[in-house]
Amino acid sequence: MDGMRIARDFVDIGALAEIPRLGARTVTTGMGDIAIFRTADDRVFALRDQCPHKQGPLSQGIVHGASVTCPLHNWVISLESGQAQGLDKGCAPHFAVKVEDGRVLLALGVPA
Amino acid sequence: MNMMSAARRKLVVIGNGMAGMRTVEEILHRAPGMFEITVFGAEAQPNYDRIMLSPLLAGDKNFEQIVLNSLEWYAEHNIRLIAGEAVTTIDRAHHTVTGEHGTVVKYDYLLLATGSNPFVLPLPGVERPGVMTFRSVSDVEKMLSIAAPGKSAVVIGGGLLGLEAAHGLNLRGMEVSVVHLMPTLMERQLDASAAHLLERALTARGMTIYTGANTESFDGEGEHGAVHSVTLKDGRRIPADLVVMAVGIRPNANLAKASGIATDRGVLVDDAMRTSDPAIFAIGECVEHNKQCYGLVAPIWDMAKVAADHICGAAQSGFMPVASGTRLKVSGIEMFSAGAFMGDKSTEDVILRDAARGIYKRLVLRDDRLVGIVCFGDARDAGWYFQLLKDEAPLGDLRDTMIFGPVMAAGDPHEALAQMPDNAEICGCNGVKKSTICNAIAAHELCTVEDVRARTKASASCGSCTGLVEGLLKLSLGENYTPDAVKPMCKCTSHGHDEVRRRIKGGALKTIPAVMQALEWTTPNGCASCRPALNFYLLAAWPGEYVDDAQSRFVNERMHANIQKDGTYSVIPRMWGGTTTAGELRAIADVVDKFNIPAVKVTGGQRIDMLGVKKEDLCAVWQDLNEAGLVSGHAYGKSLRTVKTCVGSEWCRFGVQDSTAMGVALEKATWGSWHPHKVKLAVSGCPRNCAEATIKDFGVVATEAGWDLHVGGNGGIKVRATELLCKVTTEEEVMEYACAFLQLYRMEARYLERTAPWIERAGLKYVQERIVDNAELRRSLFEDFLHAQKFAQTDPWAQEATSPALGKKFNAMAELV
Ligand code: SRM
Ligand SMILES: Cc1cc2nc3c(=O)[nH]c(=O)nc-3n(C[C@H](O)[C@H](O)[C@H](O)COP(=O)(O)OP(=O)(O)OC[C@H]3O[C@@H](n4cnc5c(N)ncnc54)[C@H](O)[C@@H]3O)c2cc1C
Ligand code: SF4
Ligand code: FES
C-alpha cells in the first residue's frame, strides 16, 4: 500500500542537471523502467521505456524537438503524447513529470 | 467639488520607485488635490527610471537624464517626499506609519510600492567587498568605483539584468565573464537557437561566457579581504575585481508581512490592487496577483491605473495581466521575445533564419493565432508582431507572409537581384562582383553553381552567397537554368551533404547549432538523421577542437556497445589483427562467468563477442577487460572495425610476407578513427587471399614483389569486389597509402556511405590521382590522418569506466518501488 501512495504523489527523482539536454535517463519502478527525457529547451517528459513497436528502450534513442527516435528500428515517438509519428501506429504510456527549482518530480499515478 | 476643503484625505506611499510614483501621477491626473500625499523612499534620490540603470552603467546616460520626477516636481504638486528614510512599521489599528529615523505619518489610504530585492546567493565569500547586486543607483556607483580598464568583472547570472550589467562593464573596459547556471543564456526569454546567436554576439565583443556553470565561492585574501576571484563547482577559477550577482529578484513583502497583511511570495492583492486590509493598496514588483509576480514595467503601468481608479473612487476597473515583451538593452544587439515563445504540444512554429545577416525569428502559433515571439538580430518588426499577439485575432492568410514583416519584401527577390548594380559584391569572401559572375556565365557558357565556383571563386568559401549565385544563373540563362537536383541531407534542410561539409570548412562552423544557424535549418535541433551526420562532419573537420556531442550519436556509439533486440548489449574487445593470447582468453572467460553473460560467439571479424550484457554491468565488464589489456573493438561504430589477417609467412607454407604483423600494425595505426560508415581492412599473406582482402574497404594482398593494394570492396548487402589501387613494395608504403586513403574517404564521402558506393560515385581514377599519382597530396593526407588520430585514440571503455560523471548514464537516476 505504501507503494500506491508514492505512486500517486510527485516524487523527487533527481536534479534536472543529471539528464543531458537532448538526452534521457531512466527511473526503475515496480512497473518497469520509465524514461525521463530532457529537450533542448529544458522541458522534461516521462514515457515508459518501451517502444510500442518491439519494446526498444526509448531512453537510448536520439532526442530531437519533442520527439525521440527509437534506437532499434527508428520509429519516431512523440514525447508529449507517447504516440508513434507518421505512418506507424502505437503509443507508449506517458506520465506526469515537472521541474521545480531544478529538481525533477515524477508522478506515476497521474496520467500526463 | 471643492478640492481645497479642509479635511483632505491622507495618502501615504511607501516606496519612491517606478510603481509608486506612476500611481501618484495617475491619481493626480484623476483627482488633483484630492489627497494630501506623503512619499517615503528608502533611497536618497528622487524617483528615477530604474530601467535606465543599464545605460547609466554603460556610460550612455548620466543620472540627470534618468530622473523621472525631480525634486521640483514633488514641490509643485505639494507632495511631501521623505527620501532616505525607510518605513519600518505600519500601525494598522491607528493608521500610522513610522520611518527608521522616527518620522510618524498618519494615513487614510496607504499604498505599498516597495519593489523587490535582488536575490543573493548564500555562498562562501558573498559578504566580501566587491561582491554586489544590480538594483539601484547606489549599486551602479559602487560598480563604477571599482570598474577600470583591464580589471576583471564576473557577472553571476546570464539573464536580462546580468547581461546588461556585463555589457555596461565591458564598455567600461573591463574583462567580463558571465557565469550562468543554465545551458543557454536568457533561457526565460530565448529559445536555444536565439541564445546561441546571443552568446556568439557577446563572445565577439570580448566577453567570456560560462554556461551550465555553478558558482562555488567568492575568494579573497583572508577572511574579510576584497574579492579577487570566483571559483566554480568544477574547480575552474576566474579572476574578479568585481562580482555582480544578477540571479533573480524576490518581491519585497517583509514590511507588509510584519504588519499582518496577507502575503505569500509577494503582497497578495485582488483585481483592484487592494490588500487584505481595505485601506491598504499595493502595486509593482512587491505584489502577487493570482499567483503571479511581475518584473517588468508594462504590467505595472496597468496596475497603476487600476489602483488610482480605486483610490480615487473614479472607476471600477480590474487588473488583467497581458503578455509583456522583453528587449535586451545592449547596444547593437537586437532581441525581442514575448509570450509562449517556447511552444508546446498545441503550437506550431514558423521559423526564419537568415544566416548571412545573423537573423533568427520564430513565431509560435496556436489555433491560427500568434502566441509567442522570438526575434534575434532583427527586431524591427517586433512591435507589429507583438500587436498581433495581443490582438489575439485569427491570422488567416497573414500566416504565410507574416514572418517577413508588415511590409512584405517589395516585389520579388528575383527583381531585386536584377536591379542590383553591376559592381555590387556578391561573394564577400572572395570579393567577386555581380558583373564578374554574369560575364563569366556568358563567356564560358557556365550553367551550374559548381561551374561558377570553379571559374570565379564566387561562393567557393563560406558559401552563404550560393543563393545569389543561383539567382544570377537564373537571370542569365532563364528557362535554360536547371539547378542540379541535390538530394537534401534530410527534411530539416535543403542542402545536400557535400554542400554542408563545404560550408562547415569554409564558414569555420564549429558546433552543431552554428551549422544549423548558418545553413538555415528549418527545425530547432535537427533530427535523428542529420545530427549524427553533422557530429561526424564537425569531428572530421576540426580534430582536437570539436567537442563531440554524445546526444547526437546513435545509441551504440554513445554506449560503446551494440544494442540487442532485448535492450541488452554485446561487447567485443579488440583482437589486433585477429590475434589473441591465453591471458586475454582467460580474462574473457572470467568476465563471462562473473557477469553471467549468456552467450559467447566468435565473430566474422576474427574476434570474440560477449552477448547479452546488461546496461548496468557495462562499466564493470570493461574495467575487468581493461585490466587484462583488452580495449574497445568499436564493433558498434561508424569507425574502423577490424583488420582481418591470415597467418602469413610466419607459419604458412605459401606465405610470402608477414601479413599478420602488417595487419596488426595497420590496426594499431587506424583504430579509433571515425568514418562516414564502418571501415574494414584485411591483409592476406599471398594471393590465395585467406583474409578475404578483396571484399574489404582497403585490402592488402602480399606478392613476391611486395604488396597489392585494393580498395572499395564490400561483403555485405551488395557484394562488391575491390579494384586494384596500385602495387607498392615496402610496409611503410602500405601504411602511408592506407592512411591517406582512409583520410580521403573520411573527408569526402557522405555520412553512411561506405567506400564501395563512394568509389563508384567518385571513380577509381579520381582516387588514384590523389593517392597514387600525387605524392605530395598523399603525404599530406597521411599527416592529416595521423594528426586526427592523436585525438581519436583514447579507449572509450577506459574513459567511461574511470569517469563517474560519464559512467552515470549506464544507471537509473532513481528507483521507485
Ligand atoms: C557480430 C557480427 C556477426 C558475427 O557474429 O560474426 C556482426 C553483427 C552485426 N552486423 Fe555485420 N557483423 C559481423 C561481421 C560482418 C561482416 C564480416 C566481416 O566483417 O568480415 C560483414 C560483411 C563484410 C562487410 O562489412 O562488407 C558484415 C556486414 C554487415 C552489414 C552490411 C554492410 C554493407 O555495407 O552492406 C550490416 C548492416 C550495416 O552496417 O548497416 C551489418 C550489421 C551488423 C549489426 C551491427 C546489426 C546491427 O545494427 O545491430 C550486427 C551487430 C550484432 C552485435 O550486436 O554484435 N553487418 N558484418 C560480426 C562482427 C564482426 C566484428 O568482429 O566486429
Ligand atoms: C538594471 C535594471 C534594468 C531593468 N530593465 C528593465 C526593462 O528593460 N524593461 C522593464 O520593463 N523593466 C526593467 N527593469 C525592471 C523595472 O525597473 C522594475 O520592474 C520596476 O522598477 C519596478 O517598480 P517598483 O516600483 O515595483 O519597484 P522599484 O522601482 O524598485 O521601487 C521600489 C522602491 O521602494 C523603496 N522601498 C522599499 N522598501 C521601502 C520601505 N520600507 N520604505 C521606503 N521605501 C522603500 C525602494 O528603495 C525603491 O526605491 C529593470 C530593472 C533593473 C534593476
Ligand atoms: S547477418 Fe543479419 S542477423 Fe546476422 S548478425 Fe548480421 S545483421 Fe544480424
Ligand atoms: S522497437 Fe522501437 S522502432 Fe522497433
TrEMBL record, chain A:
<keyword id="KW-0534">Nitrate assimilation</keyword>
<feature type="domain" description="Rieske">
    <location>
        <begin position="11"/>
        <end position="106"/>
    </location>
</feature>
<dbReference type="InterPro" id="IPR036922">
    <property type="entry name" value="Rieske_2Fe-2S_sf"/>
</dbReference>
<keyword id="KW-0560">Oxidoreductase</keyword>
<keyword id="KW-0411">Iron-sulfur</keyword>
<dbReference type="Pfam" id="PF00355">
    <property type="entry name" value="Rieske"/>
</dbReference>
<dbReference type="InterPro" id="IPR017941">
    <property type="entry name" value="Rieske_2Fe-2S"/>
</dbReference>
<protein>
    <submittedName>
        <fullName>Nitrite reductase</fullName>
    </submittedName>
</protein>
<keyword id="KW-0479">Metal-binding</keyword>
<keyword id="KW-0408">Iron</keyword>
<keyword id="KW-0001">2Fe-2S</keyword>
<dbReference type="InterPro" id="IPR012748">
    <property type="entry name" value="Rieske-like_NirD"/>
</dbReference>
From TrEMBL, chain B:
<dbReference type="InterPro" id="IPR016156">
    <property type="entry name" value="FAD/NAD-linked_Rdtase_dimer_sf"/>
</dbReference>
<dbReference type="Pfam" id="PF01077">
    <property type="entry name" value="NIR_SIR"/>
</dbReference>
<keyword id="KW-0001">2Fe-2S</keyword>
<dbReference type="InterPro" id="IPR005117">
    <property type="entry name" value="NiRdtase/SiRdtase_haem-b_fer"/>
</dbReference>
<dbReference type="InterPro" id="IPR041575">
    <property type="entry name" value="Rubredoxin_C"/>
</dbReference>
<dbReference type="InterPro" id="IPR007419">
    <property type="entry name" value="BFD-like_2Fe2S-bd_dom"/>
</dbReference>
<feature type="domain" description="NADH-rubredoxin oxidoreductase C-terminal">
    <location>
        <begin position="326"/>
        <end position="391"/>
    </location>
</feature>
<protein>
    <submittedName>
        <fullName>Nitrite reductase large subunit</fullName>
    </submittedName>
</protein>
<dbReference type="Pfam" id="PF18267">
    <property type="entry name" value="Rubredoxin_C"/>
</dbReference>
<dbReference type="InterPro" id="IPR017121">
    <property type="entry name" value="Nitrite_Rdtase_lsu"/>
</dbReference>
<dbReference type="InterPro" id="IPR006067">
    <property type="entry name" value="NO2/SO3_Rdtase_4Fe4S_dom"/>
</dbReference>
<comment type="pathway">
    <text>Nitrogen metabolism; nitrate reduction (assimilation).</text>
</comment>
<feature type="domain" description="Nitrite/sulphite reductase 4Fe-4S">
    <location>
        <begin position="637"/>
        <end position="771"/>
    </location>
</feature>
<keyword id="KW-0479">Metal-binding</keyword>
<keyword id="KW-0274">FAD</keyword>
<dbReference type="InterPro" id="IPR052034">
    <property type="entry name" value="NasD-like"/>
</dbReference>
<feature type="domain" description="Nitrite/Sulfite reductase ferredoxin-like">
    <location>
        <begin position="564"/>
        <end position="628"/>
    </location>
</feature>
<keyword id="KW-0349">Heme</keyword>
<feature type="domain" description="BFD-like [2Fe-2S]-binding">
    <location>
        <begin position="426"/>
        <end position="474"/>
    </location>
</feature>
<dbReference type="Pfam" id="PF07992">
    <property type="entry name" value="Pyr_redox_2"/>
</dbReference>
<dbReference type="InterPro" id="IPR006066">
    <property type="entry name" value="NO2/SO3_Rdtase_FeS/sirohaem_BS"/>
</dbReference>
<dbReference type="InterPro" id="IPR036188">
    <property type="entry name" value="FAD/NAD-bd_sf"/>
</dbReference>
